[in-house]
Amino acid sequence: MSLPGFGRVEREAGVRGAIGRAAQRVGVDFTYLLNQARSESGLDPNAQARSSSAGGLFQFIDQSWLGAVKMYGAKHGLGWAADAISRRGDGGWKVDGAVRDQVMALKNDPEASSLMAAEFASDNADGLKASLGRQPRSADLYFAHFLGLEGATRFLKAADARPDASAAALFPREARANRSIFYDGGGNARSLSQVYALMAKKIDDNGAPLNGAPANPGDAFGADTLRLAYAKEVFEGDGTATPDTGEMLAMIGNQRLNLLKPNPANARLAYMMLASDGNGSITDTSLDA
Question: Can you tell which superkingdom this protein's organism belongs to (predicted)?
Fold first, then answer.
């Protein structure tokens, strides 16, 4: 089995870290936010929709992005961007042409997009809790991202009252734009309960209410995957003799050795990390087997 390229793994780790920091800072569920980004963009900060302005980790369309930055930007050090955004006569958002490119480019910045998505999720969670009278689940929040807070509230209440009703009949405009969600492969309209189940699967909702406890961003880096990728790369080095393992461990503790920057000299330590049983015990460190 081939291991993922370390460069891609490291990039994904950076994205996970940005999502984790945003979740912790805003106070939203990290797993939900991570799964939303995975579903929307495959954790690619440069993902761009073909048929709309949706882009970035969380696929903000331009108007939603401008609204998010206007509402939450100053809170997160983006006051310059928020100040450049104002309302149009029709109620939409516009941005000063002098900084438009910079403001829109923030959609592709993992830190900025994660913070804006976290703020949206927090506001939507509060709104859904108030309107539904219960703690929202991950799928409920995903509907708020998908249909807006008002649309999600209408959908969720209808699904509770009439789960077998046609979702496309209640949301014809959304159904036309998202046929794969509202219709099955044979062209048959899905019911409200079927659409809910499909969206829950996309967001990996296990049915439990969100508790709002964000994960530690340090846990977001996929340590096992990084250890595997690191070991793979260092084993492909030039075979240079390794320093003493105790010395290397001390270097890690003193932050003088960065395991995210592979060095062939660190192969032995990488192997020991790979062989660890997860509790710091080495199960087998023989390289001669």
Answer: Bacteria
Confidence of residue 223 (pLDDT cuts 50, 70, 90): very low
Question: Where along the chain do the CATH 1.10.530.10 domains lie?
Answer: 11-121, 138-204
Q: Which fold does the domain 138-204 belong to in CATH? A: Lysozyme (1.10.530)
Which option is the CATH number for 11-121: 1.10.530.10, 3.30.2310.20, 1.10.10.10, 3.10.450.50? Answer: 1.10.530.10
Give the residue among 189, 69, 196 at the shortest CA–CA distance from 141. Answer: 196
Comparing 51-60, 108-117, 162-171, 275-284, the range with the smallest average pLDDT is 275-284
Integer angstrom CA distances of residue 168 from 151, 158, 179: 13, 12, 9
* Rounded mean pLDDT, 91-115: 97
What is the rounded distance in angstroms from the CA atom of residue 70 to the CA atom of residue 223? Answer: 36
Q: Is the dihedral of CA 87, 91, 97, 100 positive or negative?
A: positive
Please give the positions annotated as active site: 40
Q: Is 61 exposed, middle or buried (0-12, 13-18, 19+ CB in 10 A)?
A: middle
Q: Is 0.85 surpassed by the pTM of this model?
A: no
H-state helical runs in the chain: 6-26, 30-41, 62-72, 79-83, 100-105, 110-132, 138-161, 167-170, 172-177, 179-182, 192-202, 223-235, 245-253, 267-275
- What is the residue type of 86? S
Q: Is 38 helix (H, G, I), strand (E, B) or coil?
A: helix
